[in-house]
Amino acid sequence: MSELKRTPLRDFHAAHGGRLVDFAGWEMPVQYRSILEEHKAVRRTAGLFDVSHMGEVDVRGPEAAKFLNHLVTNDVAKLFPGRVLYSPMCYPSGGVVDDLLVYMRGAEDYFLCINAGNIAKDLAWIRECAVGFNVTITDRSDDYALLAVQGPRAAEIVQSLTGAKLGLVKYYHFAEATVAGVHCIASRTGYTGEDGFELYHAASEAVALATALLEAGASRGLELAGLGARDSLRLEAGYPLYGHEITQDISPLTAGLGWTVKLDKGADFIGRAALVAEKQNGAANKIVFFKTGDRRIVRADTPVLGADGVTVGRVVSGTLSPILNEAIGSALVTTSAAAQPLAVDIRGTKLNLHLVKPPFVELKKPTA
Amino acid sequence: MSNIPASLRYAKSHEWLKPEADGTVTIGITDYAQNSLGDITYVQAPKLGAVLKTGEVFGVVESVKAASDLYAPVAGTVVAVNGALESAPETVNRAPYSEGWMLRLKPADAVSANTLLDATAYAKLVG
């Protein structure tokens, strides 16, 4: 696995029993003890995730805001220093290049967090789109490590290691803070549906910070959690994952992310015309979320059958909800079929899909 | 390092087999198999009375990661299945050789030792 990229915590994971696998070209822990137990720990108390494989990009310059509002579908003009925005960025076709977080640090100073598997593609795209704008794009992915502390007790754990008043940092806001002696961008965001922080910090400090968090969390029920639990937590929360609910061919409108597409924000962003047309004509397909009442996992690419047994779509994500103890998932189906009974065939057993408006479980995340 | 009890017999497909005093055999999956699969979420067992040939698929074990077929290490008739796994499949992770057993067969023929592996040979296979 020598060709795989490693985060600064690779040896930390191995020493803590992490099962390392290839994830988007990175050697990452899929689990430590048990995916199901790690998932439950995050819902019950707290989990610590290494997500240092995510990419970070600085966007700076006099036209940074103008450029970003052209690049992404959500409204960057609504940001103020200390505020975070979730947004897709689209191709002219309306398909998704990636979904990302935009951090506003200052009038001419923004910071993006992008998906690990898309770093090279995103940077090439962002640079191409930046031509003609007075901005500087800098890849900071190797400089930053990123630890996510998530769960009902996450804020308490991070607070125990800093003098900064984290209570003042509302959901989808961030502040600079020194946590366990490590300078961090403490972002009250996450991918689990729970309260918590994502701590961006210098890669060289990752082991020190992870060790301090694990120690401070030990008496508060914190567990190391791998990418397996991260995926089941995000699906249970109803959050999209690039390559599944959103892709080059699945627009944010199709994916049910209409709230992130600000057609009337007063800036002509990339993909706007296609998305306006999709909205006017109605999307041909639609992402739906389902549960089955059965423990058999309905895996990605399983055909979805309409009332007459004809294929009307395919599953894009599927797992067992450790909280509901039944299979949950999402599927891309034709819009006309979405209102009819849907089913899948799992090894000869027909299972009906019960459509659900996510989240699948009650989430305890704060409001912004 | 996997736990491979010396008292059991093993199939290359990672099932274990234990001859019982009453002439039946108990079958499950090995510690190595449960560890490779990760969190087990579902066990599909055969029906009581089902007649299995050697090497025939008798069920499916599913984990968060994947679904895998289960193969009968010997031919026989299903005389018992572990119903407790229906609601607690994770028992296979916790106790693959005891409470995590999957089925009991009445063998069609005397169980021929040399078609199965002993602990040493199985350890070599998964080593």
Task: Report the C-alpha radius of gyration of chain A, rounded.
Answer: 20 Å
By DSSP, the count of extended strands of chain B is 9
Strand content range of chain B: 25-35%
Q: Report the average pLDDT across residues of chain A.
A: 97
**How would the global form of chain A be characterised?**
globular
Total of helices of chain B: 4
CATH fold description of the largest domain in chain A: Gyrase A, domain 2
The CATH homology group name of the largest domain in chain A: Probable tRNA modification gtpase trme, domain 1
CATH architecture of chain B: Beta Barrel
The assigned structural class of chain B equals alpha+beta
Largest sheet, strands/sense/barrel of chain B: 6 strands, antiparallel
Q: Give start-end ranges of low-pLDDT stretches of chain A.
A: none
Mean pLDDT of chain B: 94
Strand arrangement, major sheet of chain B:
1-2-3-9-8-5
Give the end-to-end Cα distance of chain B, rounded to a whole number of Å. Answer: 9 Å
Low-pLDDT stretches of chain B: none
Which CATH class of chain B?
Mainly Beta
Oligomer: heterodimer
Helicity of chain B, as a percent range: 10-25%
Largest interface: A-B, 15 and 13 residues
Give a structural overview:
- The complex is a heterodimer of chains A (368) and B (127).
- With 368 residues, chain A is an alpha+beta fold.
- Chain A contains eight helices and 19 strands.
- Chain A folds into three domains: 10-52 and 143-236, Gyrase A, domain 2 (2-Layer Sandwich), CATH 3.30.1360; 55-139, Aminomethyltransferase beta-barrel domains (Alpha-Beta Plaits, 2-Layer Sandwich), CATH 3.30.70; 284-357, Aminomethyltransferase beta-barrel domains (Elongation Factor Tu (Ef-tu), domain 3, Beta Barrel), CATH 2.40.30.110.
- Chain A has helices at 10-15, 35-44, 64-71, 119-129, 154-159, 206-218, 227-237, 272-281, and strands at residues 19-23, 26-31, 46-50, 55-60, 84-90, 96-106, 109-114, 136-139, 144-150, 174-179, 182-187, 196-202, 222-224, 285-291, 303-305, 311-321, 326-334, 342-346, 349-356.
- Chain A has a six-stranded mixed sheet with strand order 10-11-12-9-3-13, with helices on both faces. A six-stranded antiparallel sheet of chain A has the order 15-16-17-14-19-18. A five-stranded antiparallel sheet of chain A has the order 5-6-7-4-8.
- In chain A, a hairpin with a 5-residue loop joins strand 15 and strand 16 (311-321).
- Chain B is built from four helices and nine strands; from the N terminus they run E-E-E-H-E-E-E-E-E-H-H-E-H.
- Chain B has helices spanning 31-37, 84-87, 91-94, 119-126, and strands at residues 9-10, 15-19, 25-29, 40-44, 51-52, 57-63, 67-71, 76-81, 103-107.
- A six-stranded antiparallel sheet of chain B has the order 1-2-3-9-8-5. In chain B, strands 4-6-7 form a three-stranded antiparallel sheet.
- In chain B, a hairpin with a 3-residue loop joins strand 6 and strand 7.
- The chains are: A alpha+beta (368), B alpha+beta (127).
- The interface between A and B is medium-sized, with 15 and 13 residues.
